[in-house]
Amino acid sequence: MKKWHWLILALLTIASIIAGLLMHHEPPHNHLWDTFPVFWVLFGFIGCAALIVFAKKILAPIIYKKEDYYND
Q1: Where are the beta strands (DSSP E) in the chain?
Q2: What is the mean pLDDT of each run of 10 residues along the chain (72 residues)?
Q3: Which of 30, 44, 63, 69 is 20 to 30 A removed from 14 (C-alpha atoms)?
Q4: Domain residues for 45?
């Protein structure tokens, strides 16, 4: 990715975290994680990163074939 793509991604991430901290947050507090203001932002980011790592490290070796796969 180009440098400006990373810059926009970083700015959007920071803006999302700041918005989560500044917004009025009053959930029913049924669970401990509902009391942490940016929990769902971090949960989504970490979940997305985990899916990417899973796809690259585990699924890529299964999907990719050798260069001469069809010549054999």
Answers
A1: none
A2: 90 88 72 79 91 88 77 64
A3: 30
A4: 3-63
